[in-house]
Amino acid sequence: MPPFPQAAPHQLRNTQQRTNLTRATRTIRAKRNRLVAEKDDWEQLRRAGAAVKDETLRHLDRYLEQFEAAATAAGATVHWAPDASAANRIVTEIALERGVDEVVKAKSMATEEIGLVEALAAAGINAYETDLAALIIQLSADVPSHIVVPAIHRNRAEVREIFVRNMSRFGRPAPEHLGDEPHELAAASREHLREKFLHTRMAVTGANFAVAETGSLLLVESEGNGRMCVTMPQTLVSVVGIEKLVPTWRDVEVYLQLLARSATGERMNPYTSVWTGAHDADGPQDVHIVLLDNHRSDVLADEVGRDALRCIRCAACLNVCPVYERAGGHAYGSVYPGPIGAILSPQLRGLDDPVDRELPYASSLCGACADACPVQIPIPLILEHLRAKVVDTERTLPPSPERAAMKLAAAVFDRPAALGAGEKLAALSRKVFRGERGITSVPGFSGWFGARDVPAPPAESFRAWWARTDGGRRDDTGDGR
């Protein structure tokens, strides 16, 4: 994807996508607001959720070691993956050693982040998404546009067309005469996936939480596909970001109240699956946990940016963001779209790429995201912090027309005489720009003006008005008010 300023205008022209997003986000938002209003202690829960995450992050090394010891004692094999390539290699080797050429997969942001499906495919291993929205994305060769509902930008007519056209290439074809009613589409996906669950010997999942005191993993979902993944195959591999830890089961109680309401507007997730190691004749006998860093330690070292690691992937910030609602998730160029992606992706991937340097600016700083966040992540504050980092980074880059213009503007604003001359010149330029038409392009700045219009300069500057009215003390009535 190109940087946000170039990607967003293209996405804005997709009127069907904008309609789909507006309808979906407003529906989820309304459901969330109704259920949050039921909780008299909602703000106390938010503070508790933030406090538990902060405690965990302060002592993350200790909790990770505790988790590893407990999970190993329960019969799981724990792997440490410093980066995406290491995690992909670990999962691929587990599959190859067991002679597996197909795996079923629960929806997981961590595996999207590292590109696991592509890495497995390169080794000749097909990974089949089992979450309905993730399946839609896979069948259409699309990319996710939302953290909780990856196919939120699709409507049911589009989903029906995707099933009819592409489902047979991945397994059981769509039924003849398939309609676009939700129950028909759900039934078609169940029939398609049932074959995969019954015949595939290995599953890959993520986890919403990892409990340090017992070495347990939790997966919350709405469809039951995750439950099938963690119970039916012989081999289970879970890729888990190191920030997913919580110290105790008492802490999990806080997040289960926060997550369901914030993510899908439900009091409780329909399926909450928990597994701890391996147990004879009960579920997978070959259990692996891949603890993924992938620059999370770098984020942890930033005293301001580390608050992004509190994120529980509920997407409440996306559902209230006016920028996301209009531009959609694809404009962000990351598997983490919306406000949380604008602060998380640049920290995980660095600021070397123009895509990541633009993300902190993909926000109006209205603050709705911070108000909605169930763990009180100060997203606008982190955006401002990252913008300052972007400015520092760009000082080391080759000059660009935009940076040259900003330097010139700074020099003018620093010199009153130059500023006064510039204001007079701007007033004269109204004739060029025909009154209220505004400035829509400037040679050499087509990219910048492609996403922005500048209002026409005023006929008189404030300083000129101030001088003309003797400091604003005179008016037409002469009474000095």
TrEMBL record:
Q: Return any one Pfam family short name.
A: Fer4_8
Q: Does the keyword Signal apply?
A: no
MF terms per GO, please? 4 iron, 4 sulfur cluster binding; metal ion binding
Q: Does the keyword Transport apply?
A: yes
Residue span(s) of domain 4Fe-4S ferredoxin-type? 302-323
> Which InterPro entries does the record cross-reference, listed alphabetically?
4Fe4S_Fe-S-bd, 4Fe4S_Fe_S_CS, FTHF_cligase-like_sf, Helical_ferredxn, LUD_dom, LutB/LldF, NagB/RpiA_transferase-like
Q: What keywords tag this UniProt record? A: 4Fe-4S, Electron transport, Iron, Iron-sulfur, Metal-binding, Repeat, Transport
The protein's superkingdom reads: Bacteria
UniProt cross-references to NCBIfam families, sorted A to Z: LutB/LldF family L-lactate oxidation iron-sulfur protein (TIGR00273)
Q: What is this protein called?
A: LutB/LldF family L-lactate oxidation iron-sulfur protein
* Native source species: Speluncibacter jeojiensis
